[in-house]
Each structure stands twice: as C-alpha cells, then as structure tokens.
Write a structure and sequence with these properties.
This is DYH17 protein. Helices cover 43% and strands 12% of the residues. The protein is an alpha/beta fold. The strands form 5 sheets. A 4-stranded mixed β-sheet has the order 6-8-12-7. Strands 9-15-13-14 form a 4-stranded mixed β-sheet. Helix 11 packs across helix 14. 30% of the residues are buried.
Length: 564
Amino acid sequence: GKKLNFTIDNGRIHNVSLGQGQEVVAEKALETAAVQGHWVILQNIHLVARWLGTLEKMVEQYSLGSHDDYRVFMSAEPAPSPDTHIIPQGLLENSIKITNEPPTGMYANLHKALDLFTQMCSKEIEFKCILFALCYFHAVVAERRKFGTQGWNRPYPFNNGDLTISINVLYNYLEANPKVPWDDLRYLFGEIMYGGHITDDWDRRLCRTYLSEYVRPEMLEGELYLAPGFLIPPSLDYKGYHGYIDDNLPPESPYLYGLHPNAEIGFLTVTSDRLFRTVLEMQPKESDGGGGSGVSREEKAILDEIIEKLPEPFNMAEIMAKAAEKTPYVVVAFQECERMNILTHEIRRSLKELDLGLKGELTITSDMEELGNALFYDNVPESWTRYAYPSLLSLGAWYADLLLRIRELDVWTTDFVLPASVWLAGFFNPQSFLTAIMQSTARKNEWPLDKMCLSVEVTKKNREDITAPPREGSYVHGLFMEGARWDVPSGVIADARLKELTPMMPVIFIRAIPVDRMETKNIYECPVYKTRMRGPTYVWTFNLKTKENAAKWILAGVALLLQV
C-alpha cells in the first residue's frame, strides 16, 4: 500500500474492524472507495453473520463500473467445522484466498514465536530468559490442541497476538519494578492474556500449571528444564536462541508437552477411525432391487434384532409400591428407571415406525431414512441420543451397554438393597448417586450437607472380590484412567504403560466426610468424565494419592473416565 501511496493517514485506506454497529461504517467505506478508488480492509467478517448477505450484494454491485484502483480485503477466522461455515459462497468464489496456517510441531512453532521479537530491556538477562520460556509456553499451548481432549478440554484460538502482548507486559513490568514480580507476571499471562480465551476450569488449571513450571526464579540460574532433556538456554542473542533450538531441542514427541506417548497413539487412532468412517460413508449401499427405498437387508436384520432383545419398560407403579421409605438411593433408582423408560420407548417407537415403512404400510419420512442410515453405518441414531447419556460407542457396543444398564437397574429395583459394588457408569446421571451418598451420611449423622465432601479411597480389590456393601458410603467400579495408571501395590498414581491407553481402576470406596477432614497433602485433584469427549461430560472431582508432584499429572491430562 505504501509503495502505491495507499495509507490510512492519507485517507486512501479504510480499515474497519467489524463487530456490533460497525456494519454502517463498512457500507459507507465501500461506497466511498468504489467511487474514489480507495482500498477497504474489513477485519473479522465472521463476527457479523447476518450482514454477510448484504456484503456479498454490495461487493457484486460495486464490481462493475467502479474506479480501477478500488480493492476490498477481508479477514475471517476459519470455521471450527464444515457445518458452521457462514461466509457466502459468492464471496469465496470471487476472491483470491490466502490462508495463514499456524506452523505444526514444536520446532517450527518455537522458531516462529522467536521471530516475532527483536527488542531488548534494561534487565537483559531476566527479560531474555522469561521471553524464551514464554515462547516455549506459547508453542506448547498452541500445539497441544492436536492431542484432542487430552490436550485441552475445548479448542482455543491462541494466536501470536497473545504472545506479543504478553512480552510487552513483561517489558513494562521489568522496567517499572526493581525485582521481577513473578506472581504478577504469571497471573497476567495465565489468567488474562492466555486465560482470557479459556472457558473451562480444568483448562485454566492446566494453563496456570504450565506457567508455574516454566516461569520461576530458578530459571535465572539456568537450572530449569522446559522438557525432559531441554534445559532453558543461557543468555544469548536472538540468533543464538535459534541456534540453541536447532542443536538442543529433543525430537517431536508428547514428552515436550508433559504428556505420555500414549496420548499420540490415542489421537492417531481417532484420526484414522474418522478417515475410515468417511470412506465407509462414501461407499454405495446395496439395497433389495425394486423397492426404491434404498434400505438394505442388513438394516432390516439389525432392526429385528434390536426389537427382539429390547426388554419391557419398568413398571413404575409396581416399583414405587415396593419401596418402603424414599431414601436418597431409592430416589436415584426411580429417576434412572423413568429416564430408561423414556429412552426405550423412543427406541421401540422409532423402530416399529421404520419397520412399517419398510413393509410399505407407511410413507418413509426423512427421520426414518436417517434412522435407517444410522443402523446401516453402525451409528447411534440422533433421535435416540437426545434421550440417552453421552457415549462415543458404535451402535452394536452402545446397545449391548444399554442392556447391561437395564439389567443393573432391574437387579437394584427388585428389593432396593444397594449392590455390593455399584457400576457408576451405568447411570444416566452419576452425580445424583454421588450426591445421594452425601445425603444419606448427612441424614444419619445430622451433618450440614453444604459442609460435606466425598472421600475417595482406591482399594486393592476387583469387583469379584467385593461381596457386601460397606456400612457407610458405597463401593463403585467400572472406571478407567487416561493419561496414567493406578499402581495397586503402592496405592498411588503412576506413569502409564506404553499402549495401555485406558487401564481399568480397582474398586473405589466412596464415603462422605466433613470438608475439614479432607486430606490435602500429596493428592491430585482428578476430574471424572463420562466419556473421552471430556468437557461437558464432567461428573465430579476425585482426590487421588500421588507421591509425585500433582503438576506432572495435570500436564499429562490425567482423568478418570466412566466409559471408553
């Protein structure tokens, strides 16, 4: 622009950052530029979804008969998934498209982060030391996304702006203070600059932990490892730092991010599964000739098998009559049976409807077609998941799991005696059962419920070894650990074994205790999730014993899962 004498100062470039109320400004800029031959820069057009139709029409309108020098530049963030694309096709087809892809891998990320800076500071050693650690931190948080939910519960748009602003803040703080304000710096970087993007509490804890590991006084003595085998460099110039990375950065592996190598196996497995599923969905379906409905014999066979195995709904009146007193556990059982009835009713209704459609007694609707496709591709139909619990299983495994859940409820509601060990994953709402443990203890001991918490003790027993329920609290089984494993002999969290992605946990004894009796030393606050999707499937926090620093398990993304 400067070469051709187009600058913001001489009024020949109109720079509009779009957001609420900026549409009118943009429209005026386009109008003026088309007549006078100016350039228009429209930033972040993805923020004004409703106005994009108007923008497309205006661009088309001014493309004819406008000034020869008139140009329009637009910027937008990429859509997170193909279904959420909002930029009109006309704009995309008629424009020259440039994408700014972030680098992949720690090596490229670290070099690119360092390339952003040339400045110096009066506290040169401290400034350069913290700057390098922040560049490493930036590369880690950006690249950790590739590990899926074991990396971050939710994906965040960390960008170079976060890093440059953090370095500016670092410069200002070092210039203004005689000593390095470590806590202030960590808070500003972790809670505001980078933390401003983060919406999940567990992700915020991870971000804070990275900073407490990377930005601390020991780094000035050069005694800080940013990753196994990668010591923080001595005070060098920028060119020296690039050379240090080339010579000393270990090869790309999950260890650079504090993760276990299993995390890579997990994310590569998910990627390949997705690829094969896409290939499968592109295959033509073989259907019976003549019908024209496109429904295959396989679907009919699956449909018949599901209906045949589906048990009768729970008789709620009969179950309620059995329960002498409505204890918290009995209420949980009622709620679970009701929710199971709603789900099985929907399964039965939709399958019977589809069956009639296949026989030609009903017209095939789009819902029936979607159900038929789901049966063919071994997916759980969307109409069922609406009433079900979160699950990532394929239809066959999901249905077998559903029948197990019904059987567990059936046994429990026969006499309402708490099972010797409860299958925590078998509930629609596991939180309700964990809360019931606290309510029962609170009523028995007359303790205030809001001053209580759950104590979690991992036993050395398997489910088969448990013959009777405990006097207080409950035994639970069926949990899996991701990111590490439970070492039974020593009774603490230990490093995972290679290729064991989600080892099974022994039986866990859960009871309620007053908050002030809670153990806080040598423990890792481990989140419990319903599935590997983590994030919205959060259930509870279990305090597990650890001999090592809890930060190690936080960086490794260690969590308990109810279903794998």
